[in-house]
Amino acid sequence: MLKNIRQLTPFSLLLLAMAFTMSISQSTMTTAYPILMAHFQVAADTVQWLTTGFMVAMTLVMPVSPWLLNNISLRRLLNGIVVVFLIGTAVAMFATHFTGVILGRLLEGLAVGALFPTFQSVILENTPVENRGATMGVVGLVMGSALAVGPIISGVVLQWVSWRALFGLFFVILAGLLLLGQRWIQNTHHLQPSRFDWLSAVSLLGFGGLLYALSSLAQSHFDTTWWLITGVSLLLLIGFVVRQQRLSQPFLDLSVLRYRGYLPGLLLTGIAYSGLIIATVIMPLFYQKVFHLSPMWSGLLLVPAAVFLSQLNPKSGELLNQIGLRKLVYIGMTMMIVGYVLLALFGLRSWLVGLVSAMFLEGGNAFVMMPAITAANNVLPKPLVSHGTALITTMRQVIGAGSVVVATLCLSHYNLTLSFGQALVRTSAWFIIVPILGLLLATQLQQTKQK
């Protein structure tokens, strides 16, 4: 693992440090929900906008990242992204009304949506194909570690100081990285200037609308407003796809889908992310609602799984070159099946079962998600890597949100006639289908082993 880290340039390490900090800031907010609800006197469905709005803002910007990368020098782009995040953090930190906190989170989401596909594209472009597996394993290590550190940081900060200190902490860290890292930022990406297409930009609202519709499905009860948002969003997305086919330099080059091996990698990334998201949603409910553990303990019990995920990521990156993606998918999806089966059969017996199940679910993610991203981009020519990464990160958010919606609907349905614990067990049983689909998809990966 240390060998893989040493292979990274100072610029790549700086990118990872920025992404790590922003990822932690994303995952710590749910811990602060009760405090913010009490401070601003808002309801649970209102405070949830701190997450929903963040995700929608991320999704709006992700498809634009290839254009940004091709038209703005890396130094200016990265500085701009971090400055937007810092402005959003400052707005949220000093907000006197809840609207200010939401506005700050929206700005943070825009910055994260631009950074995540950009930094992965830059790292992939500057890494030889034979070393990409190991390098992306380190990326997975960093992002997985953020999951482990996030609950601990938020718990400690909120235990001793104000919620504003959470925003202040990330402001100081990112400002320090921005100032100290200027000497390491390199303009390694070759610019390919093109006109900014406003029609494409407006039609991208369809991604945000679809994500919002998915996130609010459980509360909407399929009312007229929900159908209107969903219908308009789908029409905008259809218009976006048609528009990209007609542009000589599209916002998001959908020709990446024609390369053999890319689409399976994209779908596998979404399936693996689904397992990760469902683990973070279902497990706290098991701990708090079934075994009556405190929110702090429910967060701490997720740490072993996140640490397991971060430790497996570098190993899976190395194995990608040795055994190929297909066998890694078999390992990862089998682990996820075991995790869901344990919850479905023994989840009500002990919280230890939940801890082990979460380790299988998140460990399975380590064997699939980053290797699938790497393998999908390896079949693309270098000029299309930024487009391939942007499409993967965007669809990953949509699939993840869809998985949460399905889990919520299953819980609501079963809880009408069963206890909450039994509803959780039934929901876990249904999700066994997801990794089974991943195993079936792996049969399409016979020709995608790494050279």
TrEMBL record:
InterPro entries: MFS, MFS_dom, MFS_trans_sf. It is a multi-pass membrane protein. Its main location: membrane. This is MFS transporter. Residues 11-446 form the Major facilitator superfamily (MFS) profile domain. It comes from Leuconostoc holzapfelii. PROSITE patterns: MFS (PS50850). Gene3D superfamilies: MFS general substrate transporter like domains, Multidrug resistance protein D. It is found in: Cell membrane. Keywords: Membrane, Transmembrane, Transmembrane helix, Transport. Pfam families: MFS_1. The chain crosses the membrane at residues 48-70, 77-96, 136-160, 166-185, 197-218, 224-242, 263-287, 293-312, 328-346, 352-377, 398-416, 428-445.
